[in-house]
C-alpha cells in the first residue's frame, strides 16, 4: 500500500533545515505528509533526533581512556535521549504536521488502515 513518491522534494539545504525544525513551503506539503505519516516515518524521526546528540558526544570518544570510561561518559546521555525520541515519536510527528498546517491525526493513519478490519469485526460482533 505504498504511495508513489513523485512528490516535490526539498533541496538538501531545505531538507537539513526541515529536519531540525523549519517549515517547508506549502507546495511540499504532500512530501511532508508522506515523510511524517508514511511508511518509515517513526524510524526517520528517531534518527533525526538522535544524530545531533551523537555528533555532540563524538569528540568524547577521542579521549585516550578505557572503553568502560568512554561508555560511562556517553551512554548516560545517549540512552535516555534515544528512549525519549522513541517514546515521544508520535507527539513530535503530530506537532510537526500541525506546524505545516496538516492534520496531526495523520500520524495514526497507517495503523488505522491496518487495524480497520479488526475494528469492523469487533463492532459487528459486540456492537459499538
Query: Mean pLDDT, nearest integer?
Result: 88
Number of helices: 6
Q: Would you report the number of β strands?
A: 0
Order of helices and strands: HHHHHH
Tell me the span between the first and last alpha carbons. Answer: 28 Å
Helix percent band = 55-70%
Radius of gyration: 19 Å
**What's the main sheet like?**
none
The poorly predicted ranges are 1-5
Number of separate domains:
1
Shape: flat
- How much of the sequence lies in strands comes to under 5%
Based on secondary structure, the structural category is mainly alpha
Provide an overview of this structure.
- The protein has 128 residues and is an all-alpha fold.
- It has one domain (12-126).
- The chain is 66% helix and 0% strand.
- The protein is built from six helices and no strands.
- The radius of gyration is 19 Å and the shape is flat.
- The model is unreliable at 1-5 (pLDDT under 50).
Strands, helices and their partners?
Layout: H1 12-19, H2 29-37, H3 41-57, H4 67-87, H5 89-99, H6 109-126
Helix pairs in contact: 2-3, 2-5, 3-4, 3-5
Protein name: DUF5313 domain-containing protein
Pfam families: DUF5313 (PF17240)
Transmembrane segments: 45-63, 69-89
Amino acid at each position: 500500500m505504498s504511495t508513489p513518491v513523485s512528490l516535490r522534494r526539498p533541496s538538501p539545504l531545505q531538507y537539513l533545515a526541515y529536519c531540525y525544525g523549519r517549515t517547508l513551503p506549502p507546495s511540499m506539503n504532500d512530501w511532508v505528509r508522506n515523510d511524517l505519516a508514511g511508511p518509515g516515518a517513526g524510524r526517520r524521526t528517531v534518527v533525526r533526533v538522535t544524530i545531533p546528540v551523537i555528533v555532540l558526544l563524538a569528540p568524547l570518544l577521542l579521549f585516550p581512556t578505557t572503553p568502560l570510561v568512554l561508555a560511562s561518559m556517553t551512554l548516560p546521555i545517549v540512552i535516555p535521549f534515544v528512549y525519549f525520541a522513541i517514546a515521544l515519536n508520535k507527539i513530535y510527528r503530530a506537532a510537526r504536521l500541525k506546524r505545516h498546517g496538516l492534520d496531526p491525526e495523520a500520524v495514526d493513519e497507517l495503523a488505522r488502515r491496518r487495524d480497520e478490519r479488526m475494528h469492523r469485526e469487533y463492532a459487528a460482533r459486540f456492537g459499538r
